[in-house]
Structure formats: C-alpha cells, structure tokens
C-alpha cells in the first residue's frame, strides 16, 4: 500500500501520544498543517484500506477496572456465528482468529473481576463453549510503534 504524505506524517507522529484535549482532531491538524476534516478523512481512508486497527487510548487496565485474555476453541463451521455473538458484548475488544485449537481470542474489560466472571459465564451459556480465562499475571511493556521513515 502506498501512503500519501499526510497519512505517513499522521501515522508517524501519532502512533503514541494522541492529544488529550476537547478537540484532538483540530490539535492534530494544527500540528500537521492541515484541517481537522483532512485528518478525519485521512483516518477514514486508512481504516477503509485496512491500515488502521483502531484510534484511541490504551489504558492501564488495573487502574481502569479489570481485564483478561480469553480463548475459545470454536469449530470451524461455527466460527463466524460465535465471533458475531462474542462481538456483541461491550466488554469485548481485540477479537481475532488464531491457527490453533483455541482459535478465537479476545480481551474482556470491565469494572471488576466479578463482572468479567459473569460475562465469561454468559459467553459460555450463549455459545456452548468453555472460555479459557487467561488473566495477566505480569505486565511486559513493549513499544508497538513502527517508524515509517526509510532506514539506511
């Protein structure tokens, strides 16, 4: 995929530290020398092209409630149906497919551990599949940013 100049600058500058203010799109536009509409149009194009997975904050889950990684072993014939059911829960994010017996993985986030347990029970009842609950024991911080600048 070929990125235009604004797309490249937007991705390079805002992989980390989005502006926290009442109008982040305008703050980004001011810094990039364009309009807020151009920033939003650029983000829409990148999303439509599959170049973005999300735009938003990453929270320290232990400060904002509770979360857990969950895996389901879904028969291939039910994969789309189960993914659709799981995606209906507002607590679910980062839902993705893996090549493994446990092939549907997602993160549950809620106000406390009890709410996650209720959600896990409901997912099991709704899908008929037993969720594998994998709460984080220790955080490993990694930088998920990638430079788009040419390197020698």
Automatic annotation (TrEMBL):
Pathway(s) the chain acts in: Porphyrin-containing compound metabolism
EC number from the UniProt entry: 4.1.1.111
InterPro entries (UniProt xref): AsnC_trans_reg2, HTH-Siroheme_Decarb, NirdL-like_HTH, WH-like_DNA-bd_sf
The keyword Magnesium appears for this protein: no
GO-annotated molecular function: DNA binding; lyase activity
Catalytically driven reaction(s): siroheme + 2 H(+) = 12,18-didecarboxysiroheme + 2 CO2
Keyword terms, alphabetized: DNA-binding, Lyase
Signal peptide limits: none
Domain of life: Bacteria
Keyword Lyase in record: yes
Domain Siroheme decarboxylase AsnC-like ligand binding: 66-140
Gene3D superfamilies, per the entry: 3.30.70.3460, Winged helix-like DNA-binding domain superfamily/Winged helix DNA-binding domain
Enzyme class, broadest EC rank: lyase
Residue ranges occupied by any Siroheme decarboxylase NirL-like HTH domain in the UniProt entry: 8-51
Assembly: Probably forms a complex composed of NirD, NirL, NirG and NirH. All proteins are required for the total conversion of siroheme to didecarboxysiroheme.
Role description: Involved in heme d1 biosynthesis. Catalyzes the decarboxylation of siroheme into didecarboxysiroheme.
Family per record: Belongs to the Ahb/Nir family.
Protein name per Swiss-Prot or TrEMBL: siroheme decarboxylase
Organism of provenance: Halopseudomonas bauzanensis
